[in-house]
Amino acid sequence: MNEHLYRWRNRQLREHVAVIDGQLAPTKVLKQATFLNVFIKKWQTANIWIYEDRIVYVGEDLPEKTSHKTEIIECQGQYLVPGYVEPHAHPFQLYNPHSLAEYALKTGTTTLVNDNLMWLLLLNQKKAFSLLDEMQHLPVSMFWWSRFSAQSELREEENFLEHEEVLRWLNHEAVIQGGELTNWPDILHEDERGLYWMQETKRLRKPVEGHFPGASKKTLTKMKLLGADGDHESISGDELYRRLEMGYYAAIRNSSIRPDLRKIIKELKNYDLNVWDYVLYTTDGSTPSFYEDGIINTCIQIAIDEGVPIEEAYSIATINPAKYFSLDNRLGSIAPGRVAHINFLKSKEDPTPVSVIAKGEWAVKDGQYVGLCDDVEWDKFGLDQMKLDWTLDPDELRFSMPIGMEMVNDVIMKPYPIKSEADKNMLARSQDEAYVMLIDREGEWRVSTFLKGFTNRLGGIVSSYSNTGDIILIGKSKSDMTLAFNRMQELGGGIVIAHGGEIIFELPLGIKGVMTDIPMEELIEKEKKMKKLLQSFGYAHSDPVYTLFFLSSTHLPYIRITPVGIIDVLKKDILFPAIMR
């Protein structure tokens, strides 16, 4: 890919102009292409010239100069649209940023804006920035946002997010947004440091993304005054419309735990919405199997099916996010000067492309993936297998807490009084109650209680995949939990399920115990198998991967198991502190 990291060099810019002057030959010419002009929301027919990774001309003319290296593509009978943008990705839900990007490309999502949480947890800043630069060589345009909080209560929060470190993230050219503001109540009332980071983001002309579930109009107004630009937490048409009224960019979510897009579009019909310029789509870091049919292409399809004008349905996925991130001079359209991200459709009504050009090269051609994504050498960045230099003593599996966590749904937990006897090796199968423990990956502390609603008979599941990077144990049998833990340790991280003294499922997570490097197609099948297995053991919800991930997330009510202990989220009280090992 020839795009020079974050901008084109002067030499390249002169070459682009030389193509127009007939001094250089374009590398691709798309003849008689019917394409969507997202600026005027009309379909037009033109010849499109591409030089290396950039669109240099759109119009009636054909180039004066061609060469044996110029590829001429006849486009009659196809419809061309800009590559799609996912503006809010969490690229570590078992998959990794590289495998997600490669998979996204196959169905036309050519730009991803990613959460930097795992790099904050797993890498020092120098290695993280080197990795960001490395990923600029992918055919997918990869951008990032800079977090202002950990999304959980960490034991050394001040070391996790140092002031100067956040400022360096915000100034990095691949980082195009501040947020998301999961810590907005603190910023609203007392967090001067977070408010300063918001203002620095604004000074750099980068947007600040909120995280305002259920926020009132008064709260939305206050956060707008403090500098928030966008929010993706609307769960109804009314909430989305309220944000649009106030000038927010409002992303409609279609995710594995919040598939709200169809419902919200239906409800927006009550408001006679005819201006969609501030609306975006996001899949909000869905778990692998939710992506079986693609990523942003599936959102566009829902919008078209629900009556959103076709031109608007595509604009929501392309030019709207480009404008939100102030990247519309570079992405989101088929126009001179833009990166050559182009999707070829068999019909306007079908947003899943038959061919994809990414940064000027074929990524998919006539339904066949060409394979442009070179593998990332994770070891080079210190992202090798997780290594535990400690062992789990079965005597540590102690669960003497008066208050447990009861699942309201996949991710929300409420407190409940514990009546079970904590010293049993196995809990009764007649109850949907299990032991749960969070252990520091460095082996320094542990937190334990009971979890109600996860299983009614499973022996044990152990996961090194979690919101904080620490280790989760859940189960009814202490011996099965120990067996699963030991196997997870042998694998160098992963999710392991044991029952009746046998390992019945394992998913190695070779990238620091958090992510796998297997292809997405294979991972989707593995996750589906795990979900089906857990449901057979009494898991009554839809997304066990998210349950594991959000057990320690303090931006969700009401009670959480975190590195500092069992926490009442609303009161911010530590009900029972972590125990040092």
UniProtKB/TrEMBL annotation:
Pfam families according to UniProt: Adenine_deam_C, Amidohydro_1
Entry EC no(s): 3.5.4.2
Segments forming domain Amidohydrolase-related: 79-362
Residue ranges annotated for the Adenine deaminase C-terminal domain, each copy included: 427-571
Entry superkingdom: Bacteria
Reaction catalysis annotation: adenine + H2O + H(+) = hypoxanthine + NH4(+)
GO molecular function, one term: adenine deaminase activity
Keyword tags: Hydrolase
PANTHER family the UniProt entry points to: ADENINE DEAMINASE YERA-RELATED (PTHR11113:SF6), N-ACETYLGLUCOSAMINE-6-PHOSPHATE DEACETYLASE (PTHR11113)
Family: Belongs to the metallo-dependent hydrolases superfamily. Adenine deaminase family.
Protein name: adenine deaminase
Origin species: Filobacillus milosensis
